[in-house]
């Protein structure tokens, strides 16, 4: 069998090497394998920028690289246009099979003339690939990052239909999964323990961690209200642009915050960290924060907080509302209700509550909660046992070859495809994760006792009490007044509150919000004061 691995040659985000990390996955896989499986012939195709970089680091894969012709490379270079003005729109159209798709359809025909492949494996959405394979009766398998990331088990998706809102599970009803998985489903607690990353069982224990500063701050601001956690997509995320009714993260928060806060929720909003590094992301990040700060019932979580912080945010929240974030699926491992507004890879019909269900707070009714936990148990059984492939296994050449070979033959309705996937991979996948879990050594970490937690809180209270009485606190009062003004709230001097804990919450709110220019002097003073005190 001849297999072409098509690594997107089209320029993305003002770069010719945006898919270099994908090429690295495959180059390492082939280098580690050394010898190709018998009866299989592989080629890697991309633009010259990516393949030249790969060959400089992995020269042993030279014979596997199918370099573009001069005309093809010239075409790719011409398509490198400003991302904001044209690039992103052309990329979205290409994913839909429109716009530049006809150019890449011809490129694929030329590649096939040089290397008559039987199966095409590609990464992400690409309408030209879909059309070419359908027109010529060729097999294709689409790959993408899975919906669990570190500190959970990092995974990869293989699907014969597509990824994100075009993936097979997103095209079926939960009843189709229940037919093959069984009606019982899987326990969230067991799934959390058996689908952790290198931390192993610590992820289950992390549910019960107590972070004095974070927990007190959030619970204090919520003031008894239920908490909704909103992890935002990046501004140019395909899930946002291709599979949702929203066009920007600002639009997401602008529409959702009024509805959720009026329904009695306090909202924790976390912008996507990629917005700070991708073209035009900084401006969009600023607009998102501006909308959040206008709401007295919302708080902006620092986007640079590590992924492990999401565990605590999920645990503190009562519901998670997302467009299609992988955090949504991860929240099901914690038995949290999740409202998915877009077409997510993990969203078959009749599983997740609607926004109206959230606003009416019907999701907290016992009957609704029982049905939801049952259905998400079925969903997790399919995904964790059969559909998601741990990253280390996905790029083992033997596993990779077997996976794409079996998937390439799947045709027909999505319901039949997902059932075939579970029958082929489900039993072995479940056994593998249970065996790996049993082999893990016991964790040496332990959850802090109530006494240790009280001591942590007492230390924070003592530190804040001293700060309130210090000269530095009086000096920074203008900064605090300005910060309150920008956030549109009345300033309350923390020396007047009913308790020192109110002072703690005020300090943490100020130090975590507003622009960096306003909050950094306070951070600096507080750190300097703490150093002198030590």
UniProtKB/TrEMBL annotation:
InterPro entries: Capsule_polysaccharide_synth, TagF_C. It holds the Pfam family Capsule_synth. GO terms for biological process: polysaccharide biosynthetic process; polysaccharide transport. Coiled coil: none annotated. It comes from the Bacteria. This is Capsule polysaccharide export protein. It comes from Microvirga lotononidis. The lineage of its organism: Bacteria, Pseudomonadati, Pseudomonadota, Alphaproteobacteria, Hyphomicrobiales.
